Every structure is written in structure tokens, then in C-alpha cells.
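In response to reviewer comment 3 from the previous cycle, which asked for concrete evidence that the modeling workflow produces usable outputs, we include below a single protein chain processed end to end. The sequence was submitted unchanged, and the resulting C-alpha cells are shown without manual editing.
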Amino acid sequence: MLRDLGGRVLNANAAAAAALGVVPDRLLGRTAAELCPPAVAVAIEDADRRVIATGGQMAVEVELETPWGGRAYELVVYPVLGPGGATIAIGSFAIDVTERRRAQSLALERERQLVEAQEAARVGSWELAVPGDRLRWSDELCLIFGCPPGFSPTVEEYVAMAHPDDREEVRRRVGRAREGTLRESEHRIIRPDGEVRWIHTRGYGRRDAEGRLTHLWGTSQDITERIVREQELQRSRAYYETIVAAMGEGYCLTIDGNVSAVNDALCELIGLAREHLIGAPPPFPCPPPADGEPTAVGGAEPAGREDGTFEITLRRPDGTTFEAEVTTRPARNPDGTVLGLVSTFRDVSARLRYERELERLATTDPLTGLANHRAFHERLGAEAARSRRHGRPLSLVILDIDHFKLVNDLHGHPSGDRALREVAGRLRRLARADELLARVGGEEFAWLLPDSDATGALAAAERARIAIRETPVEPAGTLTLSAGVCDLAHAADVTELYRRADEALYLAKRGGRDRSVCHPVAGP
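The workflow returned the following C-alpha cells.
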């Protein structure tokens, strides 16, 4: 979405309109206060003010009621800059983070449940003489198995209490225990009331002085709650991993300073295999950007920030580069302490190219490639303010091709267009890097010269006039220029500066053309 500095929508796509529940045309000219709930509007307006004040970008999280239910969005607001670096509009785009937030919350909740499952355990004891067939159970063990106190089953009765699917395995384990080769096992039992429970048994052997096994003893513990929680956690993790794997964004979880989880999208995005990432400290093994500066991504290090959204340039191992938008958020424990950091990566190269192309089209004359009328006047205002502030000269030259209508009339408009491009190219080669050359009319050009007084600007105009006249332009032949010059020292503001330069151009035309006139002193 593109908005003016007052927050009114200038342009928006269908997705933005759908999220706000209106048709795209209904967005134009409306503000956040008119489109969003009050809390969301206040957050957006605050972000706008900070972006305009700082010239940087920021991200805010908002929640909207959409036709498909409540959704969470991460709204990134950034300045749209003009040629002089001034903010001319506010751009924004929203990322639907609902499912990602749900997946993160679910994973943390399941982790919490697993910790809580480590509760005080009910433990019973048992003993079996060797040789012998009857087990001696403690009252606590009888309670665990749902039997009356004092119950002492035979080994076969104990095996019969096992779940049918586990019974043969329990029989084999009892045999190994009698041989002194089994230490612990887990299996299911069916209590007399029909309830199925998981039991963890740990066994030990007692031997006589000759080393013969005389007794087996040990403990048994009901671990049903732990097993159920672990199974639920495994299902939750599988669900969470499925969501993360399906994310179009690259995903990275950093815990204790090391990368602990990534998804396939991140591996594909940066061109590194999972095994190269897991366990690596941030910055994880990622080549530096093209300018050679080290890149820190994947954890607490990105751009020195632990929470926010920013853009960096990354280079893959194959040498290709891309521009990534990285969003980093802390993942917290239930008590609010930071468990780790979650970072997401998006390749925004195409979007940035599109934005740059939009900016170029908005400020460039399509025929000549020079700055257009709008870009010129924006730069003129900025340079005039800088000139006044620092007490430095500023001059303006307005140039017009003499008798250009004859070129179109005699040779046709395609030839006229070629002539305009040729003239623009010659003028561009004369302009310095800090100067601005623009096409402001059909065959009229404006040349802005910072740090140049009227004398210097008049000399530049003469060089331009000679450069055009000395070499014919096919098929138009020899062309000439007339130029009007004025500096800011002889004008109260930019409007008067432009008017006086235009008056000087008129004097050059009336004086016979093919000449440069300076206001207030005429003549080269």
C-alpha cells in the first residue's frame, strides 16, 4: 500500500483491500482512522509519524477481523524517498503471521506441558525369590495395579495382567530377568477395572557368596501420564514441524546461541544444507554480501538487533546474491524469560526491484531518460533550501531547442524524438554528477547547478549551446539552443528563480536565438 504524508491511500493491491473488507477503489483517499479499528489506526498513525521523523522503517503487529476470521499481521512501514532523499510518501506491506504465531505458541505450550509432566511419581516395590514363582508386592504397587493390599501374584498372573499386544514381550523379559540380564522395561497393563496403564519397571539381582542369583527385586512406577504427554507432544511437534515445513518463508530457531531448527524453505533460500546450519552459532555459515561486510543472521546478531524487521543483502555459496527481509522475534517461556529467537527470511529482491522501477518511472522522462518535471521541481526545492541554509550558490539554466517545430514538420515526429534523445545525451555528458538535468517541456530542458553562481552557470550554458550546434543531428541537421540563466542570489524563492531564468530565455529567443542570456546581466 502506498499513502501520502497525510496517511491517505494512494495505491493498494487487492490483498490489502480484502484484509480490510473493502473493494480496492474504496481504499483510495482514505486514512487508517477511516479503514481500521481505533487501536490499529493509532498504531499505524504512530508508525507513520516515526517513519517520517526518522527516515527509517519500522514494523508493528496488528490484529484485524477479516472475512476469514481474526488474523494477525506484521505491518512494515517504510519511507518512499524522492531524488533529494526527502520522504515523499509512505509505503507499507503486511505479512499474515497468524499461523506462524499459532505454531510458535503451540510448540512452547507443549514444551511447558512436558516439563509439568515431571511430577511426583507413585513408586511401588516387588521381590521374587530364585527359584520361585510368587511375587511379593508392596501396598503401593498393589494400588498402582488396581489390586487389593497384600495381593501377591504368581509370575504367570503378572504376565496375564499385561496388555495383549505386550504379553509375549513381557514373558520374554521376565525370563531374561530370572537370568539376571534385564534391568528395566516399559509395557502396558490392564487393571481389574479395565483401565490401561503404562508401567516402568526397574530390576536388580541379589547373589550369594558363590555368585548365585538368589533374589530379584526392584521398583515399578505408573508412567501413563508421562507417556500420554510425550505422545501428545510428539503429535504437536509433528504438527508444528508440518506447519514450519509448509511455510513459504525461511524459518530459523536459535536457542542458547545456536541454531536448533530450520525449515526447507530457508535451506533452499540461502543454498545451505540443514546439517550446515543446525548447531551453528549466529551468524550461521552464510557468505558475506557483495560489499564484503560480514553478514550476521539467524539469531541475536542480525544488524545488532534482537527484535525487529530489516533488510540485508546475502550471497549464496554459488555467488548469486539476493535481498532478504529478516524478521526476528524472541520466543519466550511461560514465565516471560527468553527461550530463544525466531527469525524468518523472505527474498524481497523482486519487490525491491519493482519499487525501484516504480520510483524510476515516477521521476524519469520516458523519451530521454532525464529527470521529469516533477522530479526536477522536487529537487529544485530541496537544493534551494540547502543553498539558503549553508549560504552556498545555486543557479538554474533553462534551455530550449530553436525552431524545433520545423524538425517535426519536415522530418516527422519519430525523427524529432531521435533528435530530442541526441540533444539530451549531449547535455547529460556535460552535466556534473551533483547537477540535475531534466526535460520540463516538449523541447525545453532545465539544468540545476548546485554550488555554481551565475557566471559559472552562464559558462555551462555556453558549453551546452556549442555542443549542440557544432555537430549536426541526423536527419534534422544543425540544431541550436537558446538558454536563460539566473542564480538564487537574484531571486526571493524558487518560483522567482524559475520565472527569471525563463524571462532570460525569452530575451535570448527575442535577441535572435542561438545565444545565452543571464538575468540580470544579459550576454555571455
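The first strand starts at residue 2 and ends at 3. We consider this sufficient to address the reviewer's concern, and the full set will be provided in the supplementary archive.
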